[in-house]
Amino acid sequence: MAAFLTVSFNYPLTQHLIYGFAKYLFGYGRLSDAIVNISYLLVLSFSLASIVKMARGSNLAAALAVFIVNCYPWVALFSHTQMLDFGHITLSALAFYAMIKWSLCRSWPNALFMALAVAMGATAKQAAMVFLVVPCLLLLIDAIRAKSKTHITQMLLTGLSTLTALLLWVIPNKESLTAWKNYYVPQATQSSSYLEVLNHHLWSYVSSSPHFMSLPLPLAVCSDKSKTTVWH
Known about the structure:
The structure is a single chain. By secondary structure, the protein is mainly α. It has helices spanning 2-5, 14-26, 30-54, 59-70, 73-78, 85-104, 108-122, 130-145, 149-170, 174-188, 194-208, 216-231. The longest helix is centred in the first third of the chain and has 25 residues, at 30-54. The radius of gyration is 20 Å and the shape is globular. The termini are far apart. Mean pLDDT is 84; it is low at 227-232.
């Protein structure tokens, strides 16, 4: 167990477990990796389509959402490699689906599903939790405003499961992670403050998004906007 928890200090354990289990079932080689990527693709498509349907979108809108996401060249690239990025995209989408599903029907089965999905999404990569913190906090605030002890408990369960999953990575690898931080942080911030570095990376994400689009994607977006303009 100790060897598994420290298999790679750079990354949490979730995707190591997924890929490792696939190799246990199907053996080493491209087959097991391809099966994982196909599974990720199915989960990603299902999560996106389900989110659209829960927003009362049509079947066509759900299909279009899946099409648009898969038109991103980086998504297509990651779906054919064994890097962790495709799993990050998929598990984040699954977490969002689970949170929306719970917000619409706050039952205990949905809460347990959300707790598992958010824990997996937050440990897909090092900083994956950043994309899920705000939605989770908003759901917690909503539960507090509603003064529902059951809903607050369900959200706290989600937080506890996620924290446990993160600690299973951080605690056994604390020494290695600390050494990496001491090496990297001074280089990243030697000419800028933490806020400037954050702003730089955030702007890089936002400004580069159009460059990641393949031709069908902006055409689909423009087509959707033109239809919206006509209807209004």
